[in-house]
Amino acid sequence: MKAQTWRAKIKKSCEDAGTYQPFFDPIIDSLSVILENRDKAYEQYEKTGANPVIKYTNKGGNTNPAKNPLLVVWDDLNASALTYWRELGLTPSGLKKLNEDALKPKKRSALAEALAEFG
Question: For the chain, percent helix, then strand, then coil, each to nearest 5?
Fold first, then answer.
């Protein structure tokens, strides 16, 4: 997905969570680019056979199994993205830090409490 599409989705998610502030825009832009790059790395990983382990030949000519570098990059970008999501309040712990009231159950009004006693 392109960074612009990610940007719109992230901004909407922040708005839905009640955490969006205009000064978050540079953070949202950075996260959008990270996610676009993550998607590109995964597409390339799939195009090359989606093998988590590849054969690597070192300078000495020995061939050994190694983690697929594309999968490593994808995982690193995912970890970076998680940090940004948390800072934007798009994880439960991040939301709690930014908007603790969003996770609390809604309290009933005094009128609702009184009516509940009669019903």
Answer: 65, 10, 25
- Span 51-80, mean pLDDT? 94
CA distances in angstroms from 110 to 91, 102, 113, listed in the order given: 32, 21, 5
In degrees, to the nearest 5, what angle opens at C-alpha 82 toward C-alphas 13 and 98?
Answer: 55
Report how far apart, in Å, the C-alpha atoms of 25 and of each of 16, 42, 112 are. 16, 26, 40
* Whether the predicted pLDDT of 69 surpasses 90: yes
Say if residue 30's pLDDT is above 90.
yes
Quote the distance between the C-alpha of residue 29 and its chain's center. Answer: 13
Q: Which tokens in the block code for residue 35?
A: 């996610």
Structure pTM? 0.77
Q: What is the CA radius of gyration of the chain?
A: 22
| C-beta separation of 27 from 35 below 8 A | no
Tokens of 5: 């599409």
Band of residue 50 on the pLDDT scale cut at 50, 70, 90? very high
